[in-house]
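Fold this complex.
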Amino acid sequence: ILNVEQSPQSLHVQEGDSTNFTCSFPSSNFYALHWYRWETAKSPEALFVMTLNGDEKKKGRISATLNTKEGYSYLYIKGSQPEDSATYLCAFTNGNQFYFGTGTSLTVIP
Amino acid sequence: KAGVTQTPRYLIKTRGQQVTLSCSPISGHRSVSWYQQTPGQGLQFLFEYFSETQRNKGNFPGRFSGRQFSNSRSEMNVSTLELGDSALYLCASSLRTSGHTDTQYFGPGTRLTVL
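Structure:
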């Protein structure tokens, strides 16, 4: 069973703060890494799909980087807003199936 | 474009019963994957169906089974329910044109409670 770890488990930040979280995954048999945002009472929503070492993706105030050689990805949120409050999930795939981390729960305090 | 739909949204069953959950993917998506989420656990992969064939299977007992129809709708069945099967069951659909680099779109989930 492949292990995907996310840290921290939870995070409380003030509105306007920038923050980042980590997803660690096996560096062998890498195919792709997906990031999702999961708001309470909603479905997980895809943020990024990352495939190449050194990839950087950006969507508004959210960006992500990928290091497949050392097996980690960072997700950054610049100037956090209350609407960013959600659980952020990463999912590693070796091309066969997805292995999800347990997520980082972000609360942005107004 | 309509999103992924799952029915029912909530279900209460007793131990030993069986249950069938349904998932309708986004139109044009041929891949449907099923996941289980229990408290404190990440999403656990159950299986993936593509063009009516099971493509991959996670590490779950044989009590968990599924199928996919020609219109890509998928059903998941759990027989002989156990208390530990209480969970949120999510399905996700994708185009699956190239490995797993296509975006997965998730449904709202079915919350199963086993008493």
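The longest strand of chain B covers residues 87-94.
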